[in-house]
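Bump. Still looking for P-type ATPase A domain-containing protein structure tokens.
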Amino acid sequence: MVRLRKYSPSFLTHGLGDNFCLAREDIGNKEEVKQDEAEHSTFNQNSKEILTEYGSLPDLVNFNNYDTHAQSEFSNTLRSVKTVEPSNIKVVLLRESKFKKYLFAPILTILTCGFAFIFAEWYSSFMRFFLYCDATNEEDATDLFIEETREETADVNEDGIKEKVNVIETDIINIKTKIGPLCKFQYKYTPFFYNVNEGIVKKIEYNYERKFKNLRNLKAGISECDYDDLLSLYGSCKMELIIDPWYRILIRDTLNAYYLYQIMGLTVWYISGYYKYATLIVVLMVYSVYTEYYDLKESMEKLRKIARYECKIKVRRFDEQGKLEIRDINSSELVPGDVFEIPNGCILPCDAVLISGETIVNEAMLTGESIPSIKTCVPQNDDYVDHFSVENGMQLKHFLFSGTEVIQNKETGTDCLAIVVKTGFLSAKGELIRSILYPTPNRFKFDLEIRYFLSGMMVLALIMWGAALPTFIKYFSLGDIFLETFDIFSLPVPPELPVAMSVGVIFALRKLKNKGISCININRINVAGRVKTAVLDKTGTLTEDTISVSKCEIFDGKSFIPPVYPPDNIPIDTSIWFNKKAYQSCKNDHNVKFTECMASSHSIALYKDAPIGDILEIEMFRTSQWIMIENDNPKYNSDDQWGNLLIPKEARPKISPDLDANPDHFLMIQVCKFDFSSDVQRMSVIAKPSYDSTYVCYTKGAPEQILKLCVPNSVPEDFEETLKTNTSKGKRVIALSYKYIPDFDESQIPFLKREDIEHSLIFLGFLVMSNNVKPCTKQSIDELKEGNVVPVMATGDNLLTSIAVSYKCSILTNKVYYSCEKAENGDILFIKKKGYKRVEPTYSNIGSLDIADEDSHLLVSHSASYPERLNSNCIRDVMDGNKDDLEIVVTGAVLQYIVECSDNRSYICGYNSEEILNTLLKNCKVYARMSPSQKATLVQELQDNSGEMIAMCGDGANDCNALKVADVGLSLSTSEASIAAPFTSSCENISSLVDLLRVGRSSLDLSYLLFKYMLVYSSMEFTSVIILYFHTSNISDSQLLFIDFFCATPMTIFLCSLKEKSKLSPNFPPGSLLSPSILLSLIGQMVLIGASIFAIFMTLRGQNFFTPHHKSGDIADENQEVTTVFAFTLPLYIFIGFVFKSSSRFMGKISDLPTEQIILAAVVFLSQLGLCYWICLGPLGFMKDALDLVSIDFYFRIIISGFSTFVVMISFFYEQVIHCLTKRDIIE
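Sorry for the wait, here they are.
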């Protein structure tokens, strides 16, 4: 039997948002039953208090009007809710008006020729006026008007500060459920409550941050009555993506402003008799809509396939009689609070917290991390779980995330159990899916600027229409004026533009795929073309995934003994591991304790008899030459004592087959572990040696952190010197220590705090590890720098190690750098230090080097290269001096401090903290000891301060936050299904980042090129039509069809098929369509070609053979004027594409294409060119009738051909001049 514990009013005063949860206890005696009945009698009063706290009104709801089940539903479900109030969402109650729906809206639509309906589809605020009325109470409300405000970064103002602007997004959402004054709705796949009385919106989440005090009873699960309530509140455990049917997408696309514009033009063209051309445009339009629909459906189907997953799960629930049952259910039936058994080999369908056992999972799909993660159960420790949250990095080891694969389970006496905390789109996988569906707004405004240009073309059309209007009035009827007006306004905007842009994206995706890069957000491809700063993780990204132990620096209590080479050759008499007396006599020897620390201080586990876990710990354990076995002893699998552990492990030496057979060999048994955390930068294990009765704590971690915890007299005097000697060569150094724990009580293990154990340690020495730079790293860094992309290292490693690796990678290059540090009084110090230089090893200089390295190229320091505080004016040298060649290094803690000071607008050392932050961000190349959240902060600050596009490249879970925040996130992961970042590369080195940036620049340049080509090609048609309209003539249907199909389409495909440059150019594509290079090129080419068309037209009219066209009320399309204009412009339609291609610095040469493509392009181009000049010069033959041409004097044909060729040459020359003049604009 289960009873509900009602919380007292003192609890309620803390607020629903922080404390509403459902607590359970088994009822084992009659007193508790009576207590439960007494509490049930006060149910109405308690529920009213709960609602009053939520609604802030005493008489919010009359509970007597609700039946018993309704009371239970409201109270129980709300007690399980943790509500988070989003400050950026406002809600208005709406009710659907039948008067507006059936009378007002249809009449208004008819009166406005359908524009009212179109505006209602475009703008939710107009739809609110169109079909709805504001509701006065929640009972009448049927829908909600949502107004979401988000902050975006605007351009840099005159003071160099990034300004913020608010962007408002609106929508109308149907109300799902009403509970009293609460209206439940779903917005962007996220459930919310709207409190009508307070006008507050709160996000619905399960309150898993409860107190897990009674872990045993927590494993019992929920009851069937609670299940129905929780299901109605949180929904089923599945993610169903809604894909609109094809007709809905068709209506939505055709109501797009661009397609409406095309429909208007098509109507005019069909009425005017342009059947062939209009039909071609219809085909292109249908193809464009179909392509958009197909791409949308394909991407949504892929996303749906990733999102949708169901499996069979064994869940523990109470039936109506209070009896615990284990049921087989579909995973879609899980709700928050359910306790289920974790099956081996399954994909987790929800987010859960492990409450029993241990499991090994693969989180590659969510994080890109290829190394399996080990998850442990929640300990029965009140202090530990008081603030239990996934945001606590130390507690992530207990969380199982939706979408991760369970590799192996291990039970601790009972089944491997987990409690569901998040389902559906609220889970970690759901959050990623929603981030793909609703990505961060693109800061690159290319699409918006296209609209500006097209609006400008419409203004030009209006001016030309005004100039041609007197001719229309003089010669045309009113109906013809109406048709010709729409014809003029339909020409400035190229109808092929959407198709051309779509083809460009398809080719860019194909280029990325050929390089092993997958993309889930195509809008980010062009953004990659403007990346100017690349933030790079170190381990696994710049350096190898593998780590090897170079040597052991062991401290014997007096001094460091000579370094142990190889590291597995520690001087120990191995017989002690098989002789208890011998072990007792030398157990305090530092060599023994150093080996025991390597063998026991780890979190690795066995999977198929092979160790898995952190590669550093695996290598450390391998160096110890011990073997690990998992303990099957029931004593160490009891939930009463060991519920907070991994499966306890035994480690023992592996010496020889004969000695291994000794039944009395030494064992080291892990009994408690404090996992590594980036916050404390250490981990500890409590172990019990089988030859000793005293427990030992072994602690390893960052040297500077271990130093603080050690007994001072156990630390050698040359601690700092030895550490720097190793870290300055790029070595990774781990400090090892230990302490005995006398009178250790095993029963207190679940309640231990690491602070109570990790103190008064005895220093053992350093484990020096090599993490070599990947072979292609330096070359890729050099390529980035040649391409004017600033490489920045952000790592969790030691500062000196990071500096040394950065010199190897050429991230740092100066002989002097400044270390940014924080003084005790809060001041920021820039300490000038000497850097490193590369020395080719020779016999003559090898003895004079300060630091020796095994590499062929030595990384050495100058003499006296370590902290040398030259004077107190270093901060002035940095802040007031020349910053062009300045290089700074900093730790994450100092960066966070400066960011906080900048947010508070405080001063440091007399300087504005914002100025210090700006200087730091512009000149800092190495960020060390960075936590995952600090990496994300770094990316955000770089975005806000520079205004440029920032790329982030990483390989694991520590980089996930930064990958999402960055404008271009590249995850180096072999998991094809990884959705940790917009881009995922199967090539696990930063050469893929160089490839991505090259393709990005090429794609962005292609977008500009296609836009310019389409706009100039459209302006040629527009200019020709306007000039001919003044003489009541126009280009014929066949001629328009020939221009679009024979000239423009092949050129578009050819331009899209060109490859990117083989190396990153030192220049960048323009950042805007409004940049001088784009504007001057477009305006100049349009004016040049327009003037040349007018010139050839006027030249024709001055010829002796010219017979003027008789102006009448009919438009003529077969006369000398039309033929001349058509023949003159034909070569221009082809050559203008090559003219724009000639100014590109980011697209490859034609010779870079495969041979078969070059041959095909040559055949097509020569065919085009031959046909064009045949139309100009040769006998027309059958082309005369097909294209509505007339005969022209042969000598004038030569003039047309020559003048057309001359204009092409002038156009080419002009483009090169503009390209050179705007070179500075491109670079900046």
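The first helix runs from residue 9 to 12.

Edit: fixed formatting.
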